[in-house]
Amino acid sequence: MKRIAVFPGSFDPITKGHEDIILRAIPLFDEIIVAIGTNSSKNYYFDLEKRLEMIRYTFRNEPKIKAETYTGLTVDYCKQVNATHLLRGLRTSADFEFERSIAHINQTLYPELDTVFLLSLQEYSAINSTIVRDILFNGGDASRFVPDGLDLSK
Ligand code: ADP
């Protein structure tokens, strides 16, 4: 059976922390789908097309990695694409507590899907998309926190 992982998130924008987790997961899976979940009630900094384009650009040389969008429950999307695993990154114990409750709910909703956690690199553990957006919003240079060569203009 093909091992297909879904890495869900908003990726507003993708950061070096996300990139690192995804790259380190490559040897574990046959395919990794970086999936942007869309929530119409949420306001995003970058529009969906731009977020998708940034992920595709980041992994342009990685044939195992795809970027897609989805609506609705993450587990339903995982079923739809025959995912065997859900991939998540852990930065802190707070991440762990949050992720544990989601993973337990997902186990109930879709027992065949296993959640796999990879620990972030220490140097990336303080990076998150909210901080990157704050820097951009205030006219700062956020390039060191996002994958190399990304165009951060809207
Ligand atoms: P959302 O924006 O929907 O909250 P995130 O972009 O925060 O989604 O997170 C998607 C996944 O990436 C989560 O598993 C999260 O723990 C992980 N992640 C986010 N930032 C980092 C980082 N700096 N290092 C490792 N994992 C990270």
Supply the key terms.
single chain, five-stranded parallel β-sheet, binds adenosine-5'-diphosphate, 5 helices, Rossmann fold, 5 strands, globular, alpha/beta, about 150 residues
Protein architecture, described:
With 154 residues, this protein is an alpha/beta fold. It has a single domain (4-145), classed as HUPs (Rossmann fold, 3-Layer(aba) Sandwich), CATH 3.40.50. 35% of the residues lie in helices and 21% in strands. It is built from five helices and five strands. The protein has helices at residues 16-25, 48-58, 74-80, 93-109, 129-137, and strands at residues 4-9, 31-38, 65-71, 85-90, 114-119. A five-stranded parallel beta sheet has the order 3-2-1-4-5, sandwiched between helices. Strand 4, helix 4 and strand 5 form a beta-alpha-beta unit. The longest helix is centred in the middle third of the chain and has 17 residues, at 93-109. The radius of gyration is 15 Å and the shape is globular. It binds adenosine-5'-diphosphate (ADP). Adenosine-5'-diphosphate is lined by residues 9-11, 15, 17-18, 21, 88-89, 91, 95, 120, 124, 127-129.
